[in-house]
UniProtKB/TrEMBL annotation:
Residues 17-126 form the DUF306 domain. This is META and DUF4377 domain-containing protein. Pfam families: DUF4377, META. InterPro entries: DUF306_Meta_HslJ, DUF4377, HslJ-like_sf, Hsp_HslJ-like. Residues 147-233 form the DUF4377 domain.
């Protein structure tokens, strides 16, 4: 009896980040070079026309098409960092596997989908779907830059006594990427920034995505911040 995976495959590819959980050759033996990718959560993310692969030494990216269960991957480009041999071997293996036509099957439901990719040489990659922030929060993220002060500040929380908030202010840049004069005052951020760990005494500048949560739980904020990149770090202890 046919499954419903084909019906949901088209919309779910870009709705999830896909994390590698296993990689075997045509005979079912593990691909040794890919073990590092399982440990480091090698991740494939699909945009409308381009995919990116992170978790190795370098980020690899390129165009793709997906139709009728076939993923057509165009030649990948890559950043050019040097790392230890195991990560370089992982990058090389990824480049070999993600090229040409791959047979793609999505199984499971929208809460825990699994993507299975079969390469031209018969290798099988299994990747677990993790909903993107856009999928989880039901909105497109807006890019913002937040400066996080070196010290947290005590703030009022209805459930947690002596709660400490991050102190933040927005950073702005002109079209050329030059920082504009900071005029905003510091204010407490009552929710954490997803993916960011604050260290006391370290001032940071973050590029974040701000999402408006369409249907948040009763005890959750309607605005959510997700870390995109750490832009600056200063351990001087000053704001």
């Amino acid at each position: 009896m046919p499954t419903t995976s084909a019906a949901v495959a088209q919309p779910t590819l870009s709705a999830y980040d896909w994390n590698l959980v296993s990689a075997t050759d045509a005979s079912g033996k593990p691909l040794v070079a890919m073990n590092k990718g399982i440990e480091r959560k090698l991740r494939v993310a699909f945009g409308d026309k381009n995919l990116s692969i992170s978790g190795g030494c370098n980020r690899q990216f390129g165009g793709y098409q997906y139709q009728d269960g076939v993923l057509k991957v165009q030649p990948l480009a890559s950043t050019l960092m040097a790392c230890d041999r195991s990560l370089m071997d992982l990058d090389a293996q990824v480049g070999q596997l993600f090229k040409g036509d791959l047979r793609a099957v999505i199984t499971g439901d929208n809460r825990a989908p699994m993507l299975q990719l079969t390469t031209a040489d018969g290798s099988l990659l299994k990747l677990q779907g993790e909903a993107t922030p856009q999928t989880r929060y039901g909105s497109e993220g807006e890019v913002k830059f937040l400066e996080v002060a070196a010290k947290t500040v005590k703030c009022s929380h209805p459930l947690i006594p002596n709660y400490q908030c991050l102190q933040v202010r927005e950073r702005r840049y002109d079209d050329a990427g030059l920082q504009l004069a900071t005029q905003d005052t510091w204010y407490p951020l009552y929710q954490p920034i997803e993916g960011f760990v604050h260290h006391d005494g370290v001032r940071t500048v973050l590029r974040v995505k701000q999402y408006e949560w369409k249907n948040p739980p009763a005890d959750a904020p309607s605005t959510v911040y997700v870390l995109d990149m750490v832009v600056e770090q200063d351990a001087s202890g000053s704001k």
